[in-house]
Amino acid sequence: MYARRRRAYFLMMGGCLVLFVSSWAFVRLWSIPAAISMCVIAMVIPPVAAIVANRKGPEDRWWDDPPPAPDPLRRTDKQRTGKENPAKPANPTGDPESDEWWDELDGRKRRR
Q: pLDDT of 45-91, one tens digit each?
């Protein structure tokens, strides 16, 4: 199935190039509006081709993929202080004011 999506991607991108080059190589000699409309169609093809090539199919079992490995250079709260800190976010931004704001939005810190 992957080969079919890849083939469709290359065909669509090839069609895009053919439309663009032919519109300004020889179609413009007969009709400028036709050449412009061919370029507009060629402009729409690359995003559609990317969507077709990157979509997940029913045979793609993405939910069975293993989770990403933890960063070995990043120390956890338990390694740093010796105890777990559930109130602290898993990946702080580095800005204490921003972290407090996000904690409040996430409901980790209740206002009193």
A: 999 988 888 877 777 776 677 777 777 666 665 666 666 655 555 55
Show the DSSP H helices in the chain as ranges: 2-25, 32-54, 77-81, 96-106
- For residues 34 and 84, what is the distance between their CA atoms, to the nearest angstrom? 66
Query: Structure pTM?
Result: 0.49
Per DSSP, the three-state class of 40 is helix
Query: Average pLDDT, stretch 84-106?
Result: 68
Euclidean distance between the first and final Cα of the chain, in Å? 56
Residue 112 domain-assigned?
no
Query: Is 68 inside a domain boundary?
Result: no
Q: Are 18 and 47 part of one and the same domain?
A: yes
Residues near 27 by Cβ (< 8 Å), separated by ≥ 6? 34, 35, 38
Distance in angstroms (rounded) separating the CA atoms of residues 81 and 76: 9
- Give the range of the structural domain holding residue 102, as residue numbers without chain letter: 78-106
Q: In this structure, are 53 and 85 located in the same domain? A: no
Is residue 67 a part of any domain in this protein?
no
